[in-house]
């Protein structure tokens, strides 16, 4: 049986494919998007139980921060994990409440632990 559905958003296909493998191997269902625009379309079409989103997408007009805010408009308690290889200075101002920020590179076990932590919150 497939676990909760997780949407992974990253513009780098190597990272996106790796993350999809990690999340699938962790027992979760997976969808992926290569842009903020695609992610928003998928969020409109499917009921995801968690979002993993890179905060910066090359030339994309919809950044990871915006994807998370739009996702929370659909589901205010949606677990959100942000990923970044850059500075985390914007986290306090831009991140949604009850989200987690993972700084790249991180171990696959850190990602699964973050998902489990957010999905098992008593307030969800």
Question: What structural keywords apply?
Answer:
Rossmann fold, alpha/beta, 5 strands, single chain, 5 helices, 5-stranded parallel sheet, 124 residues
How would you explain this protein's 3D organization?
- By secondary structure, this protein is α/β, with parallel strands linked by helices.
- It has one domain (5-119): 3-Layer(aba) Sandwich (Rossmann fold).
- The chain has five helices and five strands.
- It has helices at 13-25, 36-45, 64-74, 91-94, 108-119; strands at residues 5-9, 29-33, 50-54, 80-84, 99-103.
- It has a five-stranded parallel beta sheet, with helices on both faces.
- Helix 4 links the parallel strand 4 (80-84) and strand 5 (99-103).
- Helix 2 packs parallel to helix 3 (64-74).
- The longest helix is centred in the N-terminal third of the chain and has 13 residues, at 13-25.
- The radius of gyration is 13 Å and the shape is globular.
- The mean pLDDT is 87.
């Amino acid at each position: 049986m497939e676990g909760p559905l997780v949407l992974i958003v990253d513009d780098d296909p190597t990272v996106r494919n790796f993350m999809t493998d990690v999340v699938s191997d962790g027992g979760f269902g997976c969808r992926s998007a290569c842009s903020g625009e695609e992610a928003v379309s998928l969020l409109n079409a499917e009921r995801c139980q968690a979002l993993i989103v890179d905060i910066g997408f090359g030339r994309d007009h919809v950044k990871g921060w915006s994807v998370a805010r739009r996702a929370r408009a659909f589901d205010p308690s949606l677990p959100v994990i942000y990923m970044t290889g850059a500075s985390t200075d914007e986290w306090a101002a831009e991140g949604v409440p009850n989200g987690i920020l993972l700084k790249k590179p991180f171990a696959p076990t850190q990602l699964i632990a973050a998902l489990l932590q957010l999905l098992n919150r008593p307030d969800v």
